[in-house]
Amino acid sequence: MEGVYISEHPLVKHKLTLLRDKSTDSTQFRQLVNELASLLCYEATQDLAIAPRTVETPMGKAQGSTLAESIGLVPILRAGLGMVDGFWTMVPGAEVWHIGLYRDENTLRPVQYYNKLPVEPRVQVCLILDPMLATGGSAIATVDLLREWGAKRIKFVGLIAAPEGVKALHDAHPDVSIHVGAVDEHLNDIGYIVPGLGDAGDRQFGTA
Ligand code: PRP
Ligand code: URA
């Protein structure tokens, strides 16, 4: 599917396997989410624009590059929060705008409870962060919000996706690239990714 990128990086595969393991505790889980976020940030930012920049080294002039696009990180609460530090390690200048959504247990539709977007977009690239892309409802609702608000270039970055969620997000917003660590088998009848990792928010925050 065009615009869908599934990581092939050995470190991503290794760390995702540890993350899925039900014996991984919350402390280790948070650390792995953080590390995976940095690795996926590297992959999702490969097409950022750069501009020439010259600096003085102790030995003379070096013709180098500087990022020419400003970046906004949009973590979907709660679980997306755990990905922010991993992205900040790579892109320390990024702004962070929080969106709060939870899935209604019965309808599986996203319910918005928080929106910290500034009045107008002031960055060129928005990276939506959420470990799980299940039905795709939360990601689609967030892209809808960002679009209404005026964001032009949007990418979704997640750790594990269901094929149903990838298709739904791609069908709703074909111009939003999707970067994930893995695409799993299917969704079960209560909207959980199989084999997935369980509830990403609960496992991070110890609230299972
Ligand atoms: C999880 C996850 C996504 C959403 C994915 O959040 O972090 O935001 O479900 O499901 P979807 O693709 O079907 O919308 P959840 O609603 O459990 O909230 P939480 O992060 O606060 O636990
Ligand atoms: N949200 C999660 O945290 N896990 C899933 O498998 C699906 C949605």
What can you tell me about this protein's structure?
It is a single chain. The longest helix has 19 residues, at 26-44. The protein contains six helices and 13 strands. Helix 2 packs across helix 3. The chain has 208 residues and is an alpha/beta fold. The chain is 32% helix and 32% strand. Helix 4 (137-149) links the parallel strand 9 (132-133) and strand 10 (153-161).
Write the layout of secondary structure elements.
Blueprint: E1 4-6, H1 10-20, H2 26-44, E2 50-57, E3 60-67, E4 71-77, H3 84-90, E5 95-96, E6 99-103, E7 110-115, E8 125-129, E9 132-133, H4 137-149, E10 153-161, H5 163-172, E11 177-183, E12 186-187, E13 193-194, H6 200-205
Parallel strand pairs: 1-11, 4-5, 4-6, 4-8, 8-10, 9-10, 10-11
Antiparallel strand pairs: 2-3, 6-7, 12-13
The protein binds 1-O-pyrophosphono-5-O-phosphono-alpha-D-ribofuranose (PRP) and uracil.
